[in-house]
Amino acid sequence: MHLAVTVEDARAMLGLNARAFAKILEELGETTHETPSGKRTLTTVEPSTMRAVRGVRGENLGLFNGKKIVAFQGCKGGIGKTTLAYNVAVRAAQYGNRVLCIDTDQQAHLTMCLLGKEAGKHCWLDIFEERVPLAETIVPVGEHLDLVPSNLRMAIAEKRLGNTIHPKRIVAQYLTAIRDNYDIVLFDCAPALSSINHAVAFASDIVIIPQTTSRLSLDGLELSLDFLRELREDFGMAPEVRIVCNMFSQQETPSLRTLYSLMEQHQGALFQTAVRRCVKYPEAVDYERPLFLLGYRPSIAVEDLDALTRELLGLGGLRHGKNR
Ligand SMILES: Nc1ncnc2c1ncn2[C@@H]1O[C@H](COP(=O)(O)OP(=O)(O)O)[C@@H](O)[C@H]1O
Ligand SMILES: [Mg+2]
What we know:
Layout: E1 5-6, H1 7-14, H2 18-28, E2 33-34, E3 40-41, E4 44-45, H3 47-56, E5 69-72, H4 81-94, E6 99-103, H5 109-115, H6 124-128, H7 134-137, E7 139-142, E8 145-148, H8 157-162, H9 170-175, E9 184-188, H10 195-203, E10 206-211, H11 215-235, E11 240-245, H12 253-266, H13 280-286, H14 300-313
Parallel strand pairs: 5-9, 5-10, 6-8, 6-9, 10-11
Antiparallel strand pairs: 1-4, 2-3, 7-8
Helix pairs in contact: 2-3, 4-5, 4-14
Magnesium ion binds at residues 81-82, 105, 109.
């Protein structure tokens, strides 16, 4: 997957005008080419260049607060875990962060999104069974973007995990071998209150629970929060929980009602960015490309996922302004 962005996008993402951007590129000795008119141009900007520019500006390349491991969880399916994990991962890589995605859902949707039909050979089950070290399961997807794929065999991983001595600690233990190679590790989890999800949450700094705008989805949120509270009770520590409102529509009363209720009850945990309902998400899957590589814009989906990524990375001021 080629993750480069256009020069205009790169400048907007970095908040730099043309002259300041060109000056930093020159300092970096970035190769530019001459057009017949003698004008020097650079047409696309690769993740490594974005990283170098951010480095020159002394920016922190990890997550906000130096956190690193993020899991998209929730006991319900269809709330946007995979969609958000996928597009945030791609966008974070485009910002120059080194990203590892880990798919632990046996449905392997994230794997299909990132690798298409050529799913990887290994999955977490092989790691649990100690057949291969984590590093060997990693498949490169694009510059600064890697994946530990999943496949149907993950269906028995839950049973395998039950046979280990410290099931809750096991994911955290395996991650230590590779965590320094990445700025961000993003887990996409199956919709379940399972031992694997508990172990992933235990290993995570942040658990993000997407919340759609239906009453039933709110019930699911309370169950997921209880599930994470157990970790605090059992181990005295638990990841920070963040909630993101997904499939939001200002025109729909239930949508507004859900958002207000989230703001009332979970203000501190709620992302500023509410992700609006947009047909581009399923469309992007049809085209087998992430939103940010669809090649046309603007769309509210690109705006919202960029804003969400910036918020997660602590990149300050939402580029497109608050959307709620
Ligand atoms: N903001 C959104 N607007 C429109 N469709 C969305 C949005 N977020 C997710 N979807 C769609 O909803 C469906 C379920 O999303 P998915 O990410 O697979 O959920 P989960 O991983 O929680 O099961 C997918 O078809 C996806 O394209
Ligand atoms: Mg999913």
